[in-house]
Amino acid sequence: MRTIQITLLWLAALCCPANAQITESQNAYRNGDAVKKQQVNRASISRNHDGMMADLSRMEVTGNDLAMKVMAAGGDSTTVYENRMRLDYRQTDDSLLFIGSESHLLRMVYDRAEPCLCFPFAVGDSIGGIYSGRGAYCEKLFLHTFGTYKTVADGMGSLRMPGGYTLRNVVRLRTERTASTLYLPLDSMTERHGTLQRVPSLSPEHIKAYMQTDTCMALITIHRYYAQGFRYPVLEETVVKDMKGNVMEAASYYCAPEEQALLTDVENERLRQWSGGDGTEDVAYRQSEKNDSSFRYMLRHESRGGRVSVEYSSAHGTVRMLLCDRDGIVYRQAESTEPSGMLTVNCNGLRRGQYVVYVRAGSEQYSEKIDIR
Fold first, then answer.
1. Which residues contact 11 (CB under 8 A, 6 or more apart)?
2. How many other β-carbons are positioned within 10 Å of the β-carbon of residue 26?
3. Which of 13, 146, 243, 370 is deepest in the core (most CB within 10 A)?
4. 3-class DSSP assignment, residue 255
5. Which residues make beta-bridge pairs with 27?
């Protein structure tokens, strides 16, 4: 059993807004990470409401999930598999550059890469420039894609989550990108242009000239919400518009804190010991060290009164959670027969002190010590 302990030193350090920034150790892709992103109905998210950057408490999940898997390709290269597409990145001393992608139809290589992240990146920081790449559609039609980009950390605030708790010191990155595409004429598909590598690159002068002739096809706006203690954006929103401002495509994806807390991530586990930026919410996350393929769980504890929740995935039938004192007296309990889900009990009215949370799945039993203050 492990005791959730939050020291005053951590409290002082993590409540400081200056610490809320994007860093390589806490936010860069890591080899082997795998998380699920849930597509959500954008209309169900309230923005700039009640002092929140976004309110996800009534968020509607559409059921169209994405699985993201990070694989290191060696050296400074990283490959991410997402939505049946391979995304290639290169890591420099202070940036993560997007250098290419490949699906079953389209392959792209970027000779002027776009920085997706810079380290460190705090509120007010920005980066911009020109990107360009070459593509092959079904290895038969070749194209150039190019445009401008600007990414700025345009705010810091709070997110109200579906479970009712609040994530604070959330940094929002806003990326605005123009996107233009030029297709090579059919008579250019000769032996000389028979491979993507032989498609000539566009010079900066050519790119600027094409953009001045109103060839821009799309305006893309991307918002990414990074919460302290979680490696990947909790919320990502993308809106694609034509030059007249008409929405062509829009999508929002939610990567739950509970999902990210299941990752083995020492750098962020320490930050998650205190996620209440103004001292009103103390949320500690713990993942069982005894997890196996047939049963996994993660405990979240809001120690100032609040609630205790267990998110689980089980192949053992009924899962039960008991909240007991040190003498074994049961004060709260919850159970479910679903193969996966969340059990939650309310701690309001309990005396301050140490309690034990028991999680039972079939014949297995696990325990966690918590402090209610």
1. 274, 279
2. 19
3. 146
4. coil
5. none
Give the whole-angstrom CA distance, residue 81 versus residue 68.
6
CA distance 368 to 115: 42
Quickly count: other Cβ atoms within 10 Å of residue 76's Cβ.
Answer: 12
The sign one gets for the Cα dihedral 362, 364, 365, 368 is: negative
- Euclidean distance between CA atoms 215 and 213, whole angstroms: 6
| Closest CA relative to residue 317, chosen from 262, 368, 364, 259 | 364
- How would DSSP label each residue in 187-208? GG-SGGGSSGGGSPPPPHHHHH
Cα–Cα distances (Å) from 5 to 2, 273, 303, 346, in that order, read: 9, 8, 10, 20
Hey, what's the torsion of the CAs at 93, 98, 99, 104, to 10 degrees?
A: 150
- The greatest distance separating any two alpha carbons of the chain, rounded to the nearest whole angstrom, comes to 83
Residue 193 neighbours by CB distance under 10 Å = 15
Q: What is the pLDDT of residues 110-163, one digit of tens each?
A: 999 999 999 999 999 999 999 999 888 887 788 889 999 999 999 999 898 887
As a whole number of angstroms, the distance between CA 293 and CA 311 comes to 15
Nearest of 71, 74, 93, 178 to residue 130 by alpha carbon: 178
pTM recorded for the entire structure: 0.71
CA dihedral 44, 50, 54, 57 (to 10 degrees): -50
H helix runs in 68-218, sequence order? 204-212
Residue type present at position 66: L
Tens of pLDDT along 310-320? 888 788 889 99
Name the β-bridge partners of 341: 312
**What sign does the dihedral 88-206-215-224 (CA atoms) show?**
positive
Which residue type, as a one-letter code, is found at position 258? Answer: E
Sequence-distant (6+) residues with CB within 8 A of 55 are 45, 46, 47, 49, 159, 160
Q: Which residues pair with 224 in a beta bridge?
A: 173, 236
Q: Give the integer Cα–Cα distance in Å for 112 and 298.
A: 42
The three-class DSSP label of residue 25 is helix
